[in-house]
Design brief:
Elements (H helix, E strand, L loop, with lengths): L3 E7 L12 H13 L1 E11 L6 E5 L2 E9 H20 L10 H18 L8 E5 L6 H6 L7 E4 L7 H4 L5 H7 L5 E4 L2 H15 L2 E3 L2 E4 L2 E7 L6 H7 L3 H14 L3 E8 L6 H14 L7 E8 L6 H21 L7 E4 L5 H10 L2 E4 L9 H8 L7 E5 L12 E3 L4 H13 L2 H17 L2 H13 L11 H8 L1
Parallel strand pairs: 1-2, 1-5, 2-4, 5-6, 6-7, 7-10, 11-12, 11-14, 12-13, 14-15, 15-16
Antiparallel strand pairs: 3-4, 8-9, 9-10
The structure holds 6-O-phosphono-beta-D-fructofuranose.
Length: 472
C-alpha cells in the first residue's frame, strides 16, 4: 500500500488525553493511520525567523509542521486566502480586499511548502492537498519533479465564473488546478461551477468526468464530507456531554431551546438568524418566555476587519433583542462568543428542540450533520437548514429556508416548534439513514481510492496507445 501524504493549511497533531478539535481531523488521522504517511502544514504559530518543518512521530504517522513568518501569516493566510479567496468563493464580493502583495506571498508560501515537503517524500506516495490556501501546491510540487498522483479537495464552495473573474490573476489561479490528477468537490454544483469556469475562461474541454487542457487531463469528482454517526453517538455518552445536557435541561425549565453553533463568520448568516428570532418574538407573542435561542459563535480570523465588525454588529443585535423582549428571569437570546469542545456542543444539540443552521453559503456544513447525529431518535429536535449549505441535498428531513429572508426562517421556526413527535421522528430517521450511508470514513476512502487509480498526471508521459484511449 502506498503511503499517504496529506497537506493542509492547519495540522491537528493528536495529543494524549485530549479530544481532537473536529471530526474531519479525526478522519484525516484515521486515513493516515491506515496507510502510514505524513501530515504536513502550519503549526498555528507565527515566528520572526524562517523555520523549517519539525517532525513529530505518532505510530506510523509523521506530523511535519512549521510556523508561518509574520508576512506569510498576514498576506498568505489572512490576506489572499481569507480576504480574497474566502469571500469570493462564498459569494461575498463586497468583502474582498485584494492587494498584489497578498497574491505574491500566497504563491511564495506555496513554493516554500513545496520545498519543505519534497525532501520528505520517498517517491511512491499518494499526495492529497486540502483546500483553498493551497491551490498552487500541486504545480509547485510538479516543478520539483514530483510525479506521484496528487489530488486536491476543495472544502468550500466553488464560485461562478463571473465571480471568479473578479479576482485579479484569476486565470493563473485557475491554471493551478490543472496540475492535479484528481479534483474533489463537496457537491455536484461546485463541480459544475469549476467545469464551467475552466471551459469558459481557459478553453478546457470536458468528456464525462475528465477535463482536458493542452497535455493535461484532470479527473473531477464529488465527495461530500460526512460524519461518523457511530463515533458521534458514542461521544454523546461522554461525561461532558451528559453534564452539559443535564445543566441545560435544568436551566431551561419549560422553555424550548433553539440552538446554533458556528464560527463567527459572515458566511454563516448569523445576523439574519437573529432577525428571524426577533420576528418570531414580535409576531408570535405566545413564544415569549417559552423559547430560548442559544447561539455559540466561536471567534475566528479576528485580525480581519470584516470579522471584527461582524462581532460588534452581532453583539449589538443580540443586546437589542434582549432589551426589547427580556423579562425578569428570562432573556430570549443567549449569545456566546466562545469556542467549546465538541462534547459540549453535542450536549447543546441534544437539549435543543430546534437546530438553526442558516449559512448564506457553505461548502458542506458539518454542524447540521452533528446536530442530527446528536438527537434522541425517540424524541428528536427539528433541523432548520439553509438551502445554500452543501448538506441540504442530503438532509431531506430538514426544513429548508432561504437564509436571506428572516421571514421564511421565522415561519420554519414556528413549524418546527409546533411539529408533532411522529413527524419529527420520521424526518430524523430519514436524515440519519442518509448520514449513515455517506460516512466520513467513506469520504476519505473514496477519495484515496480514486486517487490511487488516476493515471499519470500528464498525457505526454503516456504511451501513444494509452493516450488515444483516454482521448476517446
Ligand atoms: O471551512 C474552511 C476552513 O478552513 C476549515 O478547514 C477550518 O476548520 C475553518 O475554515 C477554520 O478556519 P481557520 O483555519 O482560518 O481558523
Amino acid at each position: 500500500m502506498r503511503d499517504l501524504v496529506i497537506v493542509s493549511n492547519r495540522v491537528s497533531v493528536p495529543q494524549a488525553g485530549r479530544q481532537q478539535a473536529g471530526g474531519l481531523a479525526v478522519a484525516i488521522n484515521n486515513a493516515l493511520a491506515s496507510h502510514g504517511g505524513i501530515w504536513f502544514g502550519w503549526n498555528g504559530e507565527v515566528s520572526d525567523a524562517r523555520e523549517s518543518a519539525r517532525c513529530t512521530q505518532r505510530g506510523n504517522v509523521t506530523y511535519a509542521t512549521l510556523p508561518l513568518q509574520q508576512r506569510e501569516h498576514d498576506e498568505y493566510y489572512l490576506g489572499f486566502s481569507n480576504e480574497v479567496l474566502w469571500p469570493i468563493f462564498h459569494l461575498n464580493l463586497g468583502a474582498m480586499n485584494f492587494h498584489r502583495r497578498f497574491a505574491e506571498t500566497y504563491y511564495a508560501t506555496n513554493e516554500r511548502f513545496a520545498s519543505e515537503i519534497t525532501p520528505l517524500l520517498k517517491g511512491n506516495e499518494l499526495i492529497w492537498v486540502h483546500d483553498y490556501h493551497l491551490i498552487p501546491l500541486g504545480n509547485a510540487l510538479r516543478r520539483r519533479d514530483v510525479d506521484t498522483p496528487i489530488g486536491f479537495f476543495l472544502h468550500i464552495p466553488f464560485p461562478s465564473a463571473e465571480l471568479l473573474r473578479c479576482i485579479p490573476g484569476h486565470k493563473r489561479l485557475l491554471m493551478q488546478f490543472l496540475d492535479y490528477d484528481l479534483l474533489g468537490f463537496q457537491t455536484p454544483r461546485d463541480q459544475e461551477s469549476f467545469r464551467d469556469a475552466a471551459t469558459r475562461i481557459l478553453g478546457a474541454t470536458v468528456k464525462g468526468n475528465v477535463l482536458f487542457h493542452g497535455d493535461r487531463r484532470v479527473r473531477l469528482g464529488t465527495y461530500p464530507v460526512g460524519v461518523d454517526v457511530d463515533t458521534l453517538q458514542q461521544e454523546s455518552q461522554h461525561s461532558e456531554t451528559k453534564r452539559t445536557l443535564m445543566n441545560l435541561r435544568a436551566s431551561l425549565g419549560h422553555c424550548a431551546l433553539i440552538a446554533g453553533a458556528d464560527r463567527l463568520d459572515y458566511s454563516k448568516g448569523l445576523s439574519m438568524r437573529l432577525g428571524a428570532i426577533q420576528e418570531l418574538l414580535e409576531h408570535y407573542p405566545e413564544y415569549r418566555r417559552k423559547v430560548l435561542y442559544t447561539q455559540v459563535a466561536s471567534p475566528s480570523r479576528c485580525a480581519i476587519n470584516e470579522y471584527d465588525e461582524l462581532r460588534q454588529k452581532l453583539e449589538t443585535q443580540a443586546g437589542h433583542i434582549n432589551g426589547l423582549y427580556s423579562d425578569l428571569g428570562w432573556a430570549p437570546v443567549h449569545y456566546i462568543n466562545k469556542t467549546y469542545p465538541r462534547a459540549v456542543l453535542m450536549g447543546l444539540f441534544r437539549a435543543a428542540r430546534v437546530g438553526l443552521v442558516t449559512p448564506v453559503r457553505d461548502g458542506m456544513n458539518l454542524v447540521c450533520k452533528e446536530f442530527v447525529a446528536a438527537q434522541d431518535p425517540q424524541d428528536p429536535g427539528v433541523l432548520v437548514l439553509s438551502e445554500f449549505a452543501g448538506a441540504a441535498q442530503e438532509l431531506d428531513g430538514a426544513l429548508l429556508v432561504n437564509p436571506y429572508d428572516p421571514h421564511t426562517i421565522t415561519q420554519a421556526l414556528h413549524q418546527a416548534l409546533q411539529m408533532p413527535q411522529e413527524e419529527r421522528r420520521q424526518r430524523h430517521a430519514s436524515m440519519l439513514k442518509n448520514l449513515t450511508h455517506n460516512s466520513l470514513t467513506q469520504w476519505w476512502q473514496r477519495f484515496v481510492e480514486d486517487l490511487r487509480y488516476t493515471l499519470p498526471h500528464a498525457l505526454s508521459t503516456l504511451p501513444p496507445a494509452r493516450r488515444s484511449i483516454i482521448n476517446g
